[in-house]
Amino acid sequence: MKTHPTVEQSAIRKVCLRLVPFIALMFFINFLDRTAISFAGPNGMTKDLGLTAAQFGFAAGVFFVGYILLEIPSNLALHKFGARRWMARIMVTWGLVALMFTWVGSSTELYWLRFLLGVAEAGFFPGAILFLSMWVPQRHRSKVLSLFYLAQPLTIVIGAPVAALLMQQHGLGDLAGWRIMFFGVAIPAILVGLVAWFYLVDRPADAKWLTAAEKNWLTTELAKEEQSKAHQPHNMLAGKALLNGRVWMLSLIYFGLVYGLYALAFFLPTIVGGFEAEFGTRFNVFQKGLITAIPYLPAAVALYFWSRDASRRGVKTWHIAAPALLGALSVPLALYMQSPTATVLAITVTACSIFAALPNFWAVPARFLTGAAAAAGIALINTVGNIAGFAAPFITGALKDATGSYHAPMFAVGGFMLLSAVLMVLMGSREEQASASNASRGAPLAPRPTFK
Question: Whole-model pTM?
């Protein structure tokens, strides 16, 4: 006999089908636009603009300076004006800036455009996290965020070959292949941004695609969570959230994870391009794109199943700390591989580790932050983490120029990921001690965090 889904099941299923794929598509385009420079660099841009490794790293990283400066104000604006308007505005703006890379003519112009791209994109990622968190109760959040986060590794899986195909159109319109690639990845941002204005809905109560019972269930459940958080000491105003120790520890944990993410994202195509000199192998542009994509397909699979386990058990300390530790060990190991296949295999382990940790990490802040505090706290965590977005490519390029190899840069990546693992264990331990202390005093317990 066929059973009918409960109101809860049908409401969550509709959110997952209606909103998550579209927000993930926006994230896909977002990550592709910010990392397009990694494909352009080893395929003509570095040579045409006369860039050293350090200059290329600075150009990749300066994006995050503009991003960091406006991220918290942008996320507070999203909270005030609503996701539909603000996220649509962000997409169209960054699409227009990304389009200008087609005609960049010097390193200085490249620096300024990367900075302006960061300004335009500021607030998108934490805004997307906040938006999805406002649509589903806590117990479903890990699942929803993991589905959303699948877009990031799939960006490289799909984006690297697509970028390679675009670059093979060299000479079209008298443009170099890397310029055509920039044009091709910018247009979707503008188009999807315009669609977002009409497609997104700010809150469940306004969703015409939900039944009255589903609207009522979601609204009631989310209101209960808001009310429960209002009595917790960490339900703070936006200013207090920015001074909270737990928020800052999460920021440092995220810093280490993002350092690994962007060191890999910006320099993996360059490392693959160096296989010819190191191992005597030759690959064309499209083959290099496929090789660059290889680590990210297993990473997407690891992300899905690791997050599925976290959703079933509740996010534990080891759901974040264990992958971070594995990534910290596998990055230096890649340096000592004796073939392209073995090197890519070690890098694949690193990619799987990073993407297994990230979506589960983002299930943690929303558990003790709400309202304006959530907007400010999540934006702060992402801002501090994204300082690594500037530091990782710049330090990687500078160390490569200084030492002549990627050994020192990759050991730095391992060190920062190790820091994330250690801090996550310390945070989980402190939460256990606090809960035990409250229990021994007979104090009423706040809703128990599930990341111990």
Answer: 0.76
78 CA to centre of own chain: 18
Pinpoint the alpha helices (H) of 280-337.
285-293, 296-313, 317-334
Residue 350 · residue 334 · CB < 8 Å: yes
pLDDT in the model for residue 4: 54
**Which residue would you say has higher pLDDT here, 264 or 178?**
178
State what percent of residues in the chain have pLDDT above 70: 89
* Separation between Cα atoms, residue 326 and residue 349, nearest integer Å: 8
* C-alpha closest to that of 79 among 220, 243, 203, 219: 203
> Which stretch of 76-85, 190-199, 433-442 has the lowest confidence by average pLDDT?
433-442
Q: Compute the average pLDDT of residues 107-116.
A: 96
Phi-psi sector, 314: left (phi>0), alpha (psi -120 to 50), beta: left
Q: What is the largest CA-CA distance in the chain?
A: 75
Q: Would you state the structure tokens that stand for residue 107, as one six-digit string?
A: 């390193």
pLDDT of residue 378 exceeding 60? yes
Q: How far apart are CA 102 and CA 181, in angstroms?
A: 8
Contacting residues for 69 by C-beta, under 8 A, at least 6 apart: 119, 122
Query: How far is 363 from 420, CA to CA, in rounded Å?
Result: 16
Distance CA 348, CA 166 (A): 25
Residue found by looking up tokens 């790293």 in the block: 57
Q: How far is the C-alpha of 15 from the C-alpha of 72, rounded, in Å?
A: 26
Separation of alpha carbons 147 and 15, rounded Å: 11
